[in-house]
Amino acid sequence: MHIVVNVEHWLFDNAMPRKILTAPHGLEQVPDIPNYSWAEYGMRAGMPRILRCLAERSLPASVSLNAGVIEAYPSLAAAMREAGWEFIGHGLHQKSIQGEADESALIAQSLEIIRDFTGSPPAGWLGPGQRETFDTPDILKSLGVEYVFDWVLDDLPCWMRTKHGPLLSLPYTLELNDSVILRRRETCLSRDAPQAGRYAGPVRGRGADAAARSDPGASPASYRGAAPVRVS
User: Fold this and answer.
1) Could you tell me how far CA 138 lies from the centroid of its own chain?
2) CB-CB neighbours of 208 under 10 Å
3) Given this model, what pLDDT does residue 42 score?
4) Which H, E and C letters describe 61-106, residue by residue?
5) Residue 60, helix vs strand vs coil
6) What is the signed CA dihedral for 181, 74, 81, 5, rounded to 10 degrees?
7) Which of 47, 113, 195, 200 would staple 67 via disulfide (CB 3.0–4.6 Å)?
């Protein structure tokens, strides 16, 4: 098992890639303060904890990195480099490459920024949101990428055929990805809420404090989970 941490650049003046808190009456607009903030919290508070946790245990790790993080969060990028993490391409910003006018140029730019920062080109790739076009594997292989995490279709590594030679597909444990866990939690809460209401009684204790302790959603969640990836 190998630990891969997804570190992303969510653009403040764009629609958020994912949402935990929806807007009242479904009126989604930019800026989206609450959903931007939980991502920003991960960069400010979550990442130092993850770096420290792994360093204290001498655990090797990789980072699938939006290349825009290097400019937007230079001290964090430097900390991951100094920790000896492997850098994996993950697009420029957290935005699907499927809508890009020139996918090949965007992927090349992302890889080049990481190469210039680390001194070596990334050998791996995880698409933002694991999205690809019909041409993505061919583009990745032509640019020197050796393995990809997007295809969650096997428990073991497998080879993919491209126009430029074989590309290794490594399994990504999507079930441990933070966005999947959060969505599963929302589904469970939504499903169980009507039943919970039938059995709910008055909260006894110290007023609001007791109510907060009884609320399963009151505990803060860490933003960036470390998703393990099987490599053998």
Assistant:
1) 23
2) 9
3) 94
4) EEEEECCCHHHHCHHHHHHHHHCCCEEEECCCCCCCHHHCCCHHHH
5) coil
6) 0
7) 113
Pick the closest to residue 19 from 210, 199, 179, 153 (CA basis): 179
Largest CA distance in the chain: 67
The mean pLDDT value of the chain amounts to: 83
Q: Which helix (H) or strand (E) holds 227?
A: strand 226-229
Structure tokens at 136: 């993505």
125 is written with which tokens?
Answer: 């790739």
The region, left, alpha or beta by phi > 0 then psi within -120 to 50, assigned to residue 215 is beta
**CA 130, CA 179: separation in Å to the nearest integer?**
12
Grouping H, G, I as helix, E, B as strand and the rest as coil, residue 136 is helix
CA dihedral 13, 222, 177, 180 (to 10 degrees): -80
User: How would you class 230 by CB atoms within 10 Å of its CB: exposed for 0-12, middle for 13-18, buried for 19 or more?
Assistant: middle
Which residues share a beta bridge with 6? 64
Burial of 94 (0-12, 13-18, 19+ CB in 10 A): buried
Find where tokens 């989604």 sit.
28
Q: What digits encode the pLDDT tens for the residues 157-212?
A: 999 999 999 999 998 877 777 667 766 666 665 565 555 455 444 444 443 343 33
Of residues 159, 166, 64, the one with CA closest to residue 111 = 64
Q: Give residue for tokens 């825009």.
A: 68
Specify whether the CB–CB gap between 38 and 223 falls below 8 A.
yes
